[in-house]
Amino acid sequence: MTTAPTAPLPGPGPRRLRLLGYNVRSLRDDREALVRVIRACEPDVVCVQESPRYWRPEGQAAWLARRTGTTVLAGGGRTAAGPLLLGRPGAVEVLGVHDRFLPKTRGLHARGFATALLRLPGSAPFSVTSCHLSLDADERHGQFELLLDQLRIAELGVIAGDFNEHPDGQGWRLLASRLQDGHVTAPWGGEFTSVPERPYQRIDAVFATPGITVLACGVPHGLPGVTGADLRAATDHLPVLAVLEIPGPKETY
Fold first, then answer.
1. C-alpha to C-alpha distances, 216 to 191, 241, 244, nearest whole angstrom
2. 12-38 confidence digits (pLDDT tens)
3. What percent of the chain shows pLDDT beyond 70?
4. With contact defined as beta carbons under 8 Å apart, do 223 and 189 qualify?
5. Rounded to an integer, what distance in angstroms lies between the CA atom of residue 211 and that of residue 163?
6. Is the Cβ–Cβ distance between 157 and 102 less than 8 Å?
7. Which residues contact 188 (CB under 8 A, 6 or more apart)?
8. Is the pLDDT of residue 252 over 70?
9. Closest listed residue to residue 227, CA positions, set 238, 242, 243
10. pTM attached to this predicted model
């Protein structure tokens, strides 16, 4: 079921992060519609999946950043096999980049994680990882386990991605047993992320470690500036928008 937001999205606040997860299908669809959706969501950080990998990947990532008012923080076609992190200038401080190529099964696509260690003004450091997991069930389960390894970079962390698995899958349940599934914790907006014309499944999500407060998370149907026509034209997935509150460095989490 697809729903419109029933309450306003929480606004800006101290140590509050607005994060968008979005599979952009290598920018093969309506790029202007994609730009309008991202801008309307006003994210501090964008966790992109399927950024262009083969033809001028750095230039295309730079184009997307420029058009959406963001900068490239980590990842991309050459360093993470598609996942990419973009950030709004001045919103977050980059403390380190921890991109990772994943073990590859012969005959399947190369995969990777785009990860950065970030800090908001007044917050503790936290990692953000963008991922796009395998279509192969065995390979994908191993990638879910590697995502938990990626969280060792900091005590606090966020993972956003296209998991190519439903919430009842083995790997998804592994993450949900250790982390907060954003839409389950603080449901807002729509649940299903694929396909845009008639969404029927949830395969994209935002997860956060305990200690991070999830204030809202879901597909931004009805958000001002986000139109159904643009969502359908932009790519073959729907975005997931989350508002997260990161604790301060001296807080207990």
1. 12, 8, 7
2. 889 999 999 999 999 999 999 999 999
3. 96
4. yes
5. 23
6. no
7. 5, 6, 7, 9, 216, 217, 218
8. no
9. 238
10. 0.95
> Residue 118 is encoded by which pair of tokens?
């970030």
CA dist., res. 134 & res. 111, Å (int)? 7
- The gap from C-alpha 94 to its chain's centroid, in whole angstroms, comes to 17
CA 17 to chain centre: 12
Q: In the prediction, which pLDDT does 1 show? A: 44
Q: How far apart are CA 95 and CA 191, in angstroms?
A: 33
**Calpha distance 165→60 (Å, rounded):** 28
In three-state secondary structure terms, 31 is helix
Task: Give me the pLDDT at residue 2, please.
Answer: 47
Q: Are 179 and 148 in contact (CB under 8 A)?
A: no
Q: What is the mean pLDDT of the chain?
A: 94
